[in-house]
Amino acid sequence: LEAVKAALGDEDLSSIRKQHAKNQTKIRGLYTGIPGTERPANVERYSIPGHPKGLRTDIAIYGDKIALVTLEGKMFTVLIESPALARTLRYLFDFAFEHRKEEKNII
Known about the structure:
Strand order of the largest sheet: 3-4-5
């Protein structure tokens, strides 16, 4: 979470959140770090054991696309359109979400 805040800043994050709320985008996230107190209805968040330096990437899956974004150093974004890769990564994320739900690591 700290890497996202550092890379994007409060103004950018606020704009992104407003757009997601307007579009009623359903978001599920796995995070290291401590989130803010805001709990939007369209967001489901789970903590994962923290890496000492946190995760410095953002991964998004939507439709048949995967977006990979670096959040340290020079920011890079890679967009891959592949039904097979999206299905596989979605399966892995679903597995992680269910595991975190069972452990009640909701944040």
